[in-house]
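Next comes the chain:
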Amino acid sequence: LLTVTAERLDTWIMNVLQPSKDFSDQVKWTMNHICEFLKKDCFPKETNIHVNKTVKGGSTGKGTALRNNSDADVVLFLSCFSSYQEQKQNRMGILDLIKRRLGDHRQSLMFTVNITEPRYKGPGNMPRSVSLTLCSKMNSESTDVDILPAYDALGQVRRDNEPDPSLYEAAYVELLRAKGNPGEFSPCFTELQKKFVKRYPAKLKSLLRLVKHWYKKRVKPRYCSENLPPKYALELLTIYAWEQGTDSNESFKMAEGFRTVLELLCQHQEICIYWEVYYLLQHREIGAHVKSLLRQPRPIILDPADPTGILGQDNRWDLVAQEAACDRSLPCVSTAKPWAVQPAKPVTIEVKQLSGTSLKRTVSPGTTIKELKE
């Protein structure tokens, strides 16, 4: 990344950042076997626990995996969780059982890749998942797999491309009433997170890989002890930059896209991004909650699949901005022209005059009433 030119950027991403087809196939095959094991053999009959469905998420599920060390999620939607609260109360016991059963059967799953001993993963003594690593037997490629038990809040999710927010209103209202921490139950919405990213064109996914690689190699090693933003926040920022900067055009210059993301990171104190895809601001209860999040200190990046998921709060965005400012001089972006993208998503407002006529304007959320009048 320090030496690649703007002209070679697309080829470099394809040759260096995209996982090899062989390892991708091996991971897919092994993940399918792990899912089959979890569905059929993980929970003894006497537990009376059934797996309603498994969903593969993370970078691997979304189609944005990096070649050397990527991540995948397997979310198990279990019959024993009938609410968000039950998931929270009973998760530890389920994780214990999954860890023990995977440890006992690990050898039988290692046909094409090596699999590490399962381990707990999560903040403090409150693990959210059982994690293991799939390692290639041929080279240094690896994938970290997190197995997350979750409440099946959404039921059957439609596979078509046209999202219908009315389908998810009941699940989101129940989520708000559960009063969990921000994003605490986001695994319940893995299917929607995956659908949101997966529907985008291949070239945007290449830009996502580039931004994640930059973050992993240029930012994280320098500030490994700091509380940095989650990479999902940078993925969403990149998607927003592309949508706003190209009007969702599949034909764009990779260097310009990367430069735009670096410029937005330098303006982190103004970032305010959200989508109305799976939930709407017009909904009385959901909209009121989302608007309360949008009033919080910036940067604000809302998870499009989880209305409680405000990403990157209390993180060291200033450190990311420092590196972004410095790396604007990299050969691949130094001469690239950034797209005209505002760090806050423009909003459309309707002004009604006393005479009864109305006027619609698209403005920045930071625009004052005085500026609007002028």
